[in-house]
Every structure is written in C-alpha cells, then in structure tokens.
Amino acid sequence: MTKMKTWLSALLVAQLALAIGFYWNTQQELQKSLPKPLVDISWKKVDRFVVGDGNQQVALSYAKDSWLLSDLGMLPTVDGNAEQLLEKLQALQTSWPVASTQASHARFDVTEDKLQRFVAFYHGDELLGKLIVGSSPGLKKLHVRMGGQDNVYSVDLELV
After folding, report:
1. Phi/psi at 82 (5° precision)
2. How far is CA 99 from CA 38, 109, 143, 145, in A?
3. What tens-digit pLDDT sequence spans the chain (160 residues)?
4. What's the CA gap between 125 and 84, in Å, rounded?
5. How far apart are CA 16 and CA 110, in angstroms?
6. Sheet bearing 117-123, strands edge to edge
7. In a 3-state reduction of DSSP, which class is residue 88?
8. What are the φ and ψ backbone dihedral angles of 134, each rounded to 5 degrees?
9. 3-state SS class at 62
10. How far apart are CA 108 and CA 132, in angstroms?
11. Does residue 135 sit in helix, strand or coil?
12. 148/96 Cα distance (integer angstroms)
C-alpha cells in the first residue's frame, strides 16, 4: 500500500509540474502577442518630421515651443494640428499583422516606391523611424508598415 501511495504521489507531482509548465509557457506566449506601440521610437527626441507622398512632402520642425513649416520659411502651423497628428501616431498599437512578407508589400501599397503617404521622424539629421501608409481596407482604416520591418498592420487612422 505504501508503494502505491509513493507512485500516486510521484504521479501527482509530475502532473502539477506539467500543469505549471504549460501555464508558464502560455503566459509567455500571451506576453509576446500583447499590443505594442507601432511607431516604437523615442518620441522626446523627435524635433522634425516629414509628411509626404510620392511627389510632394512637407517638413515640420520644432522650434521656439511650437511646430513650424520649415520648407516654407518657418511659418507656424495651425494651433495643435501637428501635435494632434503626433499623438495619433504615438497611440497606434500593433495587432495581428495583415501580412508579414516582403512580397505582400506591393499588394497593400506599403513599399518605398508604391505608397500613399509616409511620415518620417528625425532627431536633427538622424532618421528615427519611418511609417509607410498604404491602401485603405475600409472606412477610416489604413494599411501601415514601419520602414525596415515586414509586418503590415490595419489600423484606425485618418490622414487628410
């Protein structure tokens, strides 16, 4: 009888260890898939950003506590528009990617040559990151991809 108790106790300990192992592995996988910031840059360093499409672009620089149109003789922007755009971009979170191969980039218009718009973030002359905006899968949704990455995401964003 004591031999049976020993075997059953050992079996119980093995089952508990296996259950803890599966629980820990599941928690690790869930942590990997949690939403993360899409534009993962140091936002405090951003002192210039460029918004453009394939043909034209506009550069905005931060000076004297406000955003200025640096290409147009440092004209001030409309109050709060630049800040609103940066807040929207900063709030973007990743979800499940729509695509994750380079071959799919052209289909969603998120290649360097074929894009709808882009937003490049700079600290001085150093490029911190580039968000490539492509086609629209639906109302107020856009396909986006960070430059240098393959994942394409569908996000709630409205760029005029």
Report:
1. -65, -40
2. 15, 12, 10, 10
3. 788 888 888 888 889 888 888 878 777 665 666 678 888 888 888 999 999 987 888 888 888 788 888 777 777 777 778 888 888 888 888 888 888 888 889 899 898 888 889 999 999 889 999 999 998 888 888 999 998 888 899 888 876 5
4. 23
5. 48
6. 75-76, 66-69, 57-63, 48-52, 117-123, 126-133, 141-146, 153-156
7. helix
8. -120, -140
9. strand
10. 10
11. coil
12. 18
Contact 152, 158 (CB under 8 A): no
Q: What is the DSSP string of 13-60?
A: HHHHHHHHHHHHHHHHHHHHTS--BSS-S-GGG--EEEEE-SS-EEEE
135: tokens are 């086609």
The one-letter amino acid at 28: Q
In one letter, which amino acid is 14? A
